[in-house]
Amino acid sequence: MDDASLALALAGRRISAVVIGASAGGVNALIEILPGLPREFPYPVVTVLHVMRSRQNQLVEVFQQRVALRVEEAVDKVEPRPGTLYFAPADYHLSIEEEGVFSLSLEPPVHFARPAIDITMETAANVYGPELVGILLTGANHDGAAGMAAIGAAGGLTVVQDPAEAQVGVMPKEAIRLRAPDLVLPLRDIRRLLQLSMENLQ
């Protein structure tokens, strides 16, 4: 998709936060998207990845070496800051409370996952409404589909990785089936969309 078409999808839209979900193949997908964002990126980027507990603590180190954004693990009762990439901690669900701060919980897994993408996306949709951008990437289960539907219902911008390009297409296909997203894009266009969003500040 060309820049003009991507810019049209952003036209008139105020953005306060970006939330990204991914499972199998997600680390590689994020490495293609996020290095293009500058340190002064004007929104927080909240990311939920399904990874082994032993790998979770390595995500901050891995991405801090590759991106200009600050990279942190989300901390309970802390408000997300612009220009920061947050990862959901291992074995905790990550929510956004009405007050706009993170909340961690040990509720049962959703779609066999904790953290669950759906929980983060659904609570973020409640807080940010039409000012939220939701992005769902490669994955092997249905987690994230309901979350993306909630973002769309709240008026947020929904973006799904093209299943034909995804390492595992199950997750994006389910999101598309449940509620048609605003955009279905390859990774290069998702990266460009986020870059163009900085030019769209209201």
Automatic annotation (TrEMBL):
Catalytic activity: [protein]-L-glutamate 5-O-methyl ester + H2O = L-glutamyl-[protein] + methanol + H(+)
Residue span, CheB-type methylesterase domain: 18-190
PROSITE patterns: CHEB
Enzyme Commission code: 3.1.1.61
Principal EC category: hydrolase
Record-annotated active site: 23, 50, 143
Listed InterPro entries: CheB_C (IPR035909), Sig_transdc_resp-reg_Me-estase (IPR000673)
GO cellular component, one term: cytoplasm
Biological process (GO), any one: chemotaxis
Pfam families in UniProt: CheB_methylest (PF01339)
Family matches, as Gene3D superfamilies: Methylesterase CheB, C-terminal domain
Keyword Hydrolase applies: yes
UniProt-recorded Gene Ontology molecular function terms: phosphorelay response regulator activity; protein-glutamate methylesterase activity
Keyword terms, alphabetized: Chemotaxis, Hydrolase
Record's protein name: protein-glutamate methylesterase
Organism: Pseudoduganella dura
